[in-house]
Amino acid sequence: MGLVQHFSAYSRWREAVSGNLLALHGWLAENELSDAQSELRLQQLLERLREDKLIIAFVAEFSRGKSELINAIFFGDYGNRILPSTAGRTTMCPTELLFEAGKPPAIELLPIETRSTNASVAEFKRFPEEWRVVALDTGSADAMHSALARVGEQKRVAQEHAAKLGFAIEADGKDGLRPDAEGLVEIPCWRHAVINFPHPLLEQGLVILDTPGLNAIGAEPELTLSQLPSAHAILFILAADTGVTQSDLAVWRDHVNGARTRQKGRIAVLNKIDGLWDGIRSEAEIDAEIARQVRSTADTLDLDSGHIYPVSAQKGLLAKIQRDAELLARSRLLALEQALTAELIPAKQDIVRDNTESEAVDLIARTLTLLQTRRHGIVEQLAELTDLRGKNQNVIEYMMRKVKSEKDEFERGLQRYYAVRSVFSQLTNNLYSHLGMDALREETRRTRELMLEAAFTKSLRDAMRNFFRHVRSNLDKSAGEIAEITKMMEAMYERFSTEHGMKLAPPAPFSLLRYEKEIDRLEKGFNAHFNTLLNMVTHAKRGLTQRFFETVAMQVRRTFELINRDADHWLRAVMSPLETQVREYQLQLKRRLESVKRIHQATDTLEDRVRELAQMQAALDTQLAELGGLAATLQSTLHAEAEEAPAGVAAAA
């Protein structure tokens, strides 16, 4: 099974999981077991599955055959090239290929001039009017080629204008753009491109990120600080005829290797091996030369040779178009596709499975605890009322006093519960004073003012460093508040479990470690791309400030938005089980007291009440069995391999 088939199987698995969650959602609503918190969590899970994307980024210097490789892997069955692939530079700006339902096929192009503003590409995606839209005629290959060629458009501008947009200018063109005889430099017309294309893989959630060469990558820090790290796989393309050049090595070290924290998901592709098919060397000699180049590339990149794949993208594409199995095998393209399949799909499935399972299992466990609590209360009432059969009025009065005493004792315990809620609210406010977006906005504003007021390079660098110091300090303080909340809730859970027999598992833990790691990564990127003497000397203070806030500070803000979202979910989840159990316990005590009162007033109602409670117990047993079935089905689907995802479940969804 190839990459295309595996990804389709993964999509079916994802649909099957969504179908199970929808079935659970419907069952909870039908049995009146859903509350606002459960509803919100299920909706978020379903939304996350609907919006699930698989992002593969292609990174290379120009003329390495990157666009041709994308065509060969993903669009060979289309019968033609989708992305333009000619000699020289064809991709001049970061380009996303995706499918968004409800929008016509089109290319959206963000003008390069938007770099002079104080906004990131992600922000501009909220404002469609800022983009130039080019319609895509998917029925005509020529029209497609003509439209897609616009991604590579360039224009000549004055050096001052290019520098204002963040491009480095170098007289020799070594580390920047080289002026021509008229003193002008050539820059991309577009800052970013989004191609909405109705391809089966893209419709299932695949996103392909095609990146430009070194100069353009270096000019758009958002690419290396945000887009590349968010990719599930990065393919780094080299040319077999040139090997690893100095510029290739710079891209690898600065943009690919630095964007990942592990080797998994990084693949180097040694393209254009067909250049060795010269008709003179034997197949054995060609294979030996390719093996030598793989070893050399592995040593240079410090990458396991098993992560380096020699291919001929051009011959692979031709073979797919002509359905030539022999040529396809010789291109070695299938080995690369199988590597992507073996490494990418299972890893992505594991992430989705873990995220879905942790939420769904907790939700099911809470519902199960609620049903068991109800059943336990009914069983107790049944036992009490059964014992009253044939008993005199004095015994019934004693039972009524006993239940009333339990109710009074529980209400005294409620005073402690309300006190804990008050402290919980206070600690939550303290947490958000450090973690909240208002605190981050204030620090961002203060840092911007300090940077703009800085008279010396040291002051400028200190302001940026202090920004990260303040962010870390807030995370440290927040960790302390979280620990205090956890300790208090653990004590409260244990007390109510002991005193009132409530079934309460320990509150779920919450850690800021992953967000601290993300801040570490962003600070590392800041030091590599901003906090250098060369940057301080070659860029104007205002331009550097702008780039810092539209890239680094923007990514910190997104990280804090995620922290706030997850902290909010955790705070609700940690308090919700106690609130639910308290409400349920109150309800059960009230029902017990009312039952004994009714029997005290009219003894003939005893048998009616016993029958009523027996029916309620039977209904709860049915609900428990149904919930167990839903949980088992969800577990089975979650832990099925993508290729084994049960078609019947997907169809039922």
Explain the overall architecture.
By secondary structure, this protein is α/β, with parallel strands linked by helices. Among the domains are: 54-108 and 194-331, Rossmann fold, CATH 3.40.50.300; 409-601, no CATH class. Helices cover 64% and strands 9% of the residues. The chain contains 23 helices and eleven strands. The strands form two sheets. It has a nine-stranded mixed sheet with strand order 4-3-7-2-8-1-9-10-11, with helices on both faces. It has a two-stranded antiparallel sheet with strand order 5-6. Strand 9 (233-239), helix 10 and strand 10 form a beta-alpha-beta unit. Helix 1 packs antiparallel against helix 2. 35% of the residues are buried.
The structural class is alpha/beta
What's the tally of helices? 23
Regions with little confidence, pLDDT below 50 for 5+ residues = 259-263, 644-653
Number of strands: 11
The CATH architecture of the domain at 54-108 and 194-331 is 3-Layer(aba) Sandwich
The proportion of residues in beta strands is 5-15%
CATH topology of the domain at 54-108 and 194-331: Rossmann fold
Oligomer: single chain
Please give the order of strands in the largest beta sheet.
Answer: 4-3-7-2-8-1-9-10-11
**Chain-averaged pLDDT:** 80
Major beta-sheet overview: 9 strands, mixed
* Percent helix range: 55-70%
Instruction: Give the CA-based shape.
Output: elongated
CATH hierarchy, class of the domain at 54-108 and 194-331: Alpha Beta
